């Protein structure tokens, strides 16, 4: 009689697991929100602030926004220097700290894909999804053999091991996407330094708890499912927070290029997580989770000690690098996209943030842009290993190494998109142009990528540029711009909420893209690329109204250039 260790009939239906994920996510987020509304977060904030004062002592400071406190590490630096830090120094600290913060987020996110090979040695590389259950008799036979020989980790090395790993993946992505909306809403109502620290420590805790199952000899699937869901919830605190902080410190004219370079943390984190987890895997898969979890918690403490959230939080003088541009009188809200003066602020509501001109089009554009990008992220190694290049098939390791060139192209694309959008002062035109250019590039990669290794590499790099370029631009510079839109009347405390709305919507597409690919690729990879090209086209269409507005503003600017001082309005454009 076949023995199935701790498996329940509910696992035979993937849709029920997804419903469970949704209900669990909703309940968890409601608990967090209720705790916040009851004032517990404020109490924690007061306790931490009291700890700051006791540890560092009082230091004469300029009058600052009461919602913020100067980080204790900054106080130590100023005490050692015996003078205040310059605005440029603060900007450097912000870039470095947030870069390593989100690098650690991606490093911990990447470890699970490495650990899967130890949990289910016979499973194919890449993302595992529930539909793969019982689809290949060879995998089922090898999985049974692995279970009998005690290879891998119960319950993931059984006949349904691949499906169980897929349920972990989908659960993580789903909770991450849903949590993004709430994280931005809460982040705009807290000191982002404290909020980001809590998120990083929580991410480290639940990443490590996944690895603790190795030493505790835990073989209960729902333990790993709940841990992954909680990790996804805390992971959702990262992106809205770091984008909001960087947006606070850098003026619009410099955001595109600076954030394009800064956004390389995604690839650096993926590479770092893969290397660390792979090196530690031979000592036991638990170490591949616990060590990265400990590292992100340690970086979280660095964030707590050194991250200045806003110039006002440290009494910094903006000098010539003003974060906000003065608003022209009589400016139209429908005009593209950025303008504000800093005033007394209160956090912006979720619905109000959705109503900011440009938020909905860019959010929906990112839904389809991220669908394309994450399909490549999760399926490109698998596609390469199953496609003959010059008549030869590459091994899984060779395919994985080759697929990293897509990330290299993505880094170049992010920097290029940011630089072009800064030069043109037109974010929508840049993003839409990249998405439309991605369509023929995707066609050429599918049609001619198999001709030779050289052609494959060149087309893959170009594909990475045009697919990841607008994705990086929208999630960084555009989110920061929209978080300081003129309709907010100078209120910058919408940055985290706007970033969460845009990236949260994009993350839903990131979960749906790989899911659809799993079904469609079973019949035809050409159909998959048709879906990706269609998604890129729809992504560009969502920006049509903003593109028309930017082109109209450019024509008007050129036509009236020099006629009056008001005709010079580059600061209005995104």
UniProtKB/TrEMBL annotation:
It comes from the Eukaryota. InterPro entries: MFS, MFS_dom, MFS_trans_sf, SLC37A1_2. The keyword Flavoprotein does not apply. One of its GO terms (molecular function) is glucose 6-phosphate:phosphate antiporter activity. GO terms for cellular component: membrane. It holds the Pfam family MFS_1. Residues 97-552 form the Major facilitator superfamily (MFS) profile domain. One of its GO terms (biological process) is phosphate ion homeostasis. It is found in: Membrane. The chain crosses the membrane at residues 16-36, 85-105, 163-182, 194-216, 222-250, 262-281, 287-309, 359-380, 400-421, 428-445, 457-482, 494-516, 528-548. The keyword Transcription regulation does not apply. It is a multi-pass membrane protein. Keywords: Membrane, Sugar transport, Transmembrane, Transmembrane helix, Transport. Belongs to the major facilitator superfamily. Phosphate:H(+) symporter (TC 2.A.1.9) family. Belongs to the major facilitator superfamily. Organophosphate:Pi antiporter (OPA) (TC 2.A.1.4) family. This is Glycerol-3-phosphate transporter 4.
């Amino acid at each position: 009689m076949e023995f199935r260790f701790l498996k329940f009939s509910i696992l035979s239906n993937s849709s029920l697991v997804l419903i469970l994920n949704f209900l669990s996510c909703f309940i968890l987020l409601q608990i967090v929100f209720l705790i916040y509304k009851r004032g517990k977060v404020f109490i924690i904030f007061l306790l931490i602030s009291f700890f700051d004062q006791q540890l560092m002592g009082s230091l004469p400071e300029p009058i600052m926004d009461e919602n913020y406190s100067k980080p204790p590490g900054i106080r130590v630096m100023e005490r050692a220097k015996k003078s205040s830090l310059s605005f440029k120094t603060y900007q450097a600290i912000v870039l470095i700290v947030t870069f390593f913060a989100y690098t650690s987020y991606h490093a911990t996110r990447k470890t699970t894909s490495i650990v899967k090979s130890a949990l289910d040695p016979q499973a194919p590389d890449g993302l595992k999804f529930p539909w793969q259950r019982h689809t290949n008799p060879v995998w089922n036979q090898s999985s049974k053999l692995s279970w009998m020989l005690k290879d891998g980790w119960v319950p993931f090395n059984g006949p349904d091991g691949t499906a169980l790993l897929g349920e972990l993946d989908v659960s993580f992505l789903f909770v991450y996407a849903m949590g993004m909306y709430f994280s931005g809403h809460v982040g705009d109502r807290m000191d982002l330094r404290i909020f980001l620290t809590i998120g990083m420590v929580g991410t480290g805790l639940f990443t490590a708890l996944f690895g603790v199952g190795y030493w505790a000899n835990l073989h209960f699937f729902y333990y790993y499912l709940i841990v992954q869901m909680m990790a996804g919830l805390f992971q959702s605190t990262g992106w809205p927070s770091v984008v909001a902080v960087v947006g606070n410190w850098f003026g619009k004219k410099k955001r595109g290029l600076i954030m394009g370079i800064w956004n390389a943390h995604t690839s650096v984190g993926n590479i770092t997580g893969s290397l660390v987890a792979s090196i530690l895997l031979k000592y036991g898969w638990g170490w591949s989770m616990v060590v990265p979890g400990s590292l992100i918690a340690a970086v979280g403490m660095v964030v707590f000690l050194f991250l200045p959230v806003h110039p006002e939080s440290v009494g910094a003088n903006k000098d010539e690098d003003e974060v906000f541009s003065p608003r022209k009188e009589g400016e139209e809200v429908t005009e593209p996209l950025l303008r504000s003066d800093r005033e007394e602020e209160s956090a912006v509501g979720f619905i109000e943030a959705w109503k900011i001109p440009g938020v909905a089009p860019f959010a929906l554009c990112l839904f389809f842009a991220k669908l394309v990008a994450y399909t490549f992220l999760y399926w490109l190694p698998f596609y390469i290993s199953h496609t003959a290049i010059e008549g030869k098939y590459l091994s899984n390791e060779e395919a994985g190494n080759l697929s990293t060139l897509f990330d290299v192209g993505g880094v170049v694309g992010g920097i290029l998109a940011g630089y072009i959008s800064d030069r043109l002062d037109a974010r929508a035109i840049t993003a839409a142009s990249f998405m439309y250019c991605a369509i023929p590039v995707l066609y050429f990669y599918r049609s001619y990528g198999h001709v030779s290794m050289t052609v494959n590499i060149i087309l893959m790099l170009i594909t990475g540029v045009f697919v990841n370029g607008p994705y990086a631009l929208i999630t960084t510079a555009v989110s920061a711009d929209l978080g300081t839109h003129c309709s907010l009347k100078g209120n910058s405390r919408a940055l985290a909420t706007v970033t969460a709305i845009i990236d949260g919507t994009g993350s839903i597409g990131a979960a749906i893209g790989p899911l659809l690919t799993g079904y469609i690729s079973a019949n035809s990879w050409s159909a998959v690329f048709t879906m990706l090209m269609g998604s890129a086209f729809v992504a560009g269409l969502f920006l049509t109204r903003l593109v028309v507005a930017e082109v109209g503003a450019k024509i008007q600017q050129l036509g009236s250039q020099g006629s009056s001082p008001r005709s010079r309005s580059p600061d209005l454009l995104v």
